[in-house]
Amino acid sequence: MDLDFLTHAPFWIALGQIIIIDILLGGDNAVVIALACRKLPPEQRRKGIIYGTAGAIVLRVILIAFAMVLLQLPFLKVVGALLLVWIGMKLIAPEEESHDNIEGSDKLFAAIKTIIVADLVMSVDNVIAIAGAAQSSGEHQLLLIILGLLISIPIIVWGSQLVIKLMERYPLIIVAGGMLLGWIAGGMLVTDPLFVNPDQWTWAPKLLDYNAETKMAVFNASMPIYWVAHVGGALLVLAIGKMVAAKQKKSEAAH
Q: pTM of the entire structure?
């Protein structure tokens, strides 16, 4: 097996991005797990957490792999980029969320089912963000996703309180996370087949070079648009997030 990719910086950068995204967007998942298992007997609670989390991981890997295939279609990366900007903005200017609809169960299987179903419903943001981060690395994308999830899930489940406290104490972490999603969104936007494939959609501007064999964009150093898009996406999320947060603060003060 060729392990040369382990010495390539893009692989480790993408892995780092996936872990950060999982931790930032996975706080709610830890709350769901705790709520779903709260009525289980102590000896079954650990099993509920482990089996429910394992099921959620497997389901999420399948969803992300499916999303990455879809992202090869024209226009879908554009939509994904817009969704990432929205998710990043919500990270910087969050609304109050309720978990009142998460029911605990005293039956192990019911608790596991609750964890998996709730994680599926809540994973749309994770799936889009992780697919976007992984696709920028080229090869070994599925390996990246699995490694990122395996590393981040224990942090979310067993270290969620520490992560939450760090985020509360250092709000800059949240802002940086939102900007990271904007950064990924910018790269996702300009690598959409719409803007790179010269053989199709000729009416659209071609922003990057194109590899006909891999059907992927080629990042040419002479084409700074890729990095401009990254930076622009990060700054756009920051600007919108701060603007919405200021509006929310003003609205709260009025009440």
A: 0.71
